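Milestone M4 deliverable, item 7.
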Amino acid sequence: MSPTDSRVAVLGAGAWGTALAIQLARNGVHVKLWGHREKLLATMATERVNRRYLPGIHFPEALIPDSRLENTLYKTDFILIAVPSTGFTEVISRLPEGTAPVFWATKGLDCETGKPLHERAREILGETRGIGVVSGPSFAIEVARRLPTAITVAANSATLARRFACLLHSERFRTYTSTDLTGVELGGAAKNVIAIAAGIADGLGFGANARAGIITRGLAEIRRLGRVLGARPATLMGLAGLGDLVLTCTDDQSRNRRFGLELGGGATVESAHKRIAGAVEGIPAAAALTRLAREKNIEMPISEAVQAVLSGHQAPRDAVATLMRRSMKPER
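Output delivered:
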């Protein structure tokens, strides 16, 4: 099936969902873009642009916004979910029975159980449905502006991963494939927590040395958890792991890094969250990640420190001091 014969329903009309819908439509894929804000979708359909999230980026002809979920899902070949992790279960639970494979670009863990999203998806959709995830170092506005980007498409079969990757792939949007759902999802969720830590350190004025240390040791604790969960080491050293981690920790386009900067500058969790437009995925991910780490008896001190700040148990400066006072040990 060529891109021009394919139909994709993108569920989630935020910045990332819209950017991916635009990328697919530019490749000739017939795309319907759904969101729960009926008025916003109607405006997008009329103006052919998402002025709220991607102003100035006009929709290709093959992209049709629609606030009616049933209409969006009608005769679709693939479903791509691009909603915050807090809404993932609700959206996937609304999908009808069928054979269309379900992919998602959500970066997080299940908020209720702490499980990787593919485990939650299997519980809801069943074991036989094709599922997959799109992840990697990618800011929505840069994708929409056709700036060079490389991401990973993982699925529960190599053939399915390649089929969906082909729909996204272009000269400016390079796709790599994988069957390591666990590794790709873990990298995408955990990097947001480490990015909050990096932002806090920069907000406190701790400098480049501290930022580099947080990124490096953050990757180490992600890999420790990954080993226990069965993630492939190469995945966590690749685009969906190290690549996304570096991007999110170092660029102020990252909402999670900016949220950390606010905290390091003295803002409360509530006021910092209000100042950031859009979801801060590191907030629910920190709780889910630390819960999962404790269940698996894995040390994740940076993630624990972030959760201590978010839960009000420690001030940012005190959390950093606690990290620095940890006993000396070999680097692993």
